[in-house]
Amino acid sequence: MTGVVNLLREKLGEMAPRHGIILGSGLGTLVSALRNPVRMAYADLPGFPVSAVSGHAGELVAGYLGDVPVIMLSGRVHYYEKGDANAMRLPIEALLGLGVQSLILTNSAGSLRDDMPPGSVMEITDHINYSGMNPLVGEESDRRFVGMTNAYDKDLSARMRLAAEKLGIALSQGVYMWFSGPSFETPAEIRMARILGADAVGMSTVPEVILARLFGLRVVAASVITNYGAGMTGSELTHEETKDMAPVGGARLAAILKEMIAGGGNDSE
């Protein structure tokens, strides 16, 4: 891990980002908003996992949002690709090694609420790990017993909501349920998820939250809603629908994150 951190430090020069962002589908407009971007493909970073999922760029991009230095992981590796819940450990640990203190996670998700249609944005206030998988399985020290009561940082959440309010963008709040994927959920599973208190379902993010908390990073997360859950409309779900709808909500979430990070000027949190 030291080798990749040293390589990144050499590439970044004097840039010292304190905010890290993992980008799901549809957040390309946020990358394009960076000033003086420095780009590195995951394939060129020793040990970084390379995703084979269409719609995930697979590159690290650092630059400035306003006057604030940030570092973005454009694309992620999912559990369902190789059955590894720990797949994003090295990239997150590398961000920590660079001095990142807060991690912003984004994803695309299916809505379980009629009042949260495709194109909406939902702040994740809590999650349900329905997959049963955990990236800390095999961790050999007592560090593995990570508390998750305050997994999502209240101050960062308040800043996200304030940014959305300032921009006049509706920002829902809700619970995200992680299914392992890659197949979509069944209508029966969606009915169960609603009974258990979930507001959205997806195939990522939860392992990254657990890893971030292991490393002591502050976390805030949001979902771009790309579809309704299975059985809610009668239509079959497809990955193409996800890719088509992600840019709609993605543009809204990108605006919120830009205001949240850059709107307050230089922020070293």
UniProtKB/TrEMBL annotation:
Q: State the species of origin.
A: Rhizobium tubonense
| GO cellular component labels | cytoplasm
For this protein, what is the EC number? 2.4.2.1
Q: Which GO terms describe its biological process?
A: nucleoside metabolic process
Looking up NCBIfam families in the UniProt record yields: PNPH-PUNA-XAPA, PRK08202.1, PUNP
> Residue limits of the Nucleoside phosphorylase domain?
19-262
Record's subunit section: Homotrimer.
Record keywords:
Glycosyltransferase, Transferase
Q: What is the lineage of its organism?
A: Bacteria, Pseudomonadati, Pseudomonadota, Alphaproteobacteria, Hyphomicrobiales
Function as written in the Swiss-Prot or TrEMBL entry: The purine nucleoside phosphorylases catalyze the phosphorolytic breakdown of the N-glycosidic bond in the beta-(deoxy)ribonucleoside molecules, with the formation of the corresponding free purine bases and pentose-1-phosphate.
Query: Is the Glycosyltransferase keyword given for this protein?
Result: yes
* Family named by the database record: Belongs to the PNP/MTAP phosphorylase family.
One molecular function GO term is:
purine-nucleoside phosphorylase activity
- InterPro entries reported in the protein's UniProt record: Nucleoside_phosphorylase_d (IPR000845), Nucleoside_phosphorylase_sf (IPR035994), PUNP (IPR011269), Purine_phosphorylase (IPR011268)
The pathway it acts in is: Purine metabolism; purine nucleoside salvage
An example of a Pfam family matching this protein is PNP_UDP_1
Protein name in the entry: Purine nucleoside phosphorylase
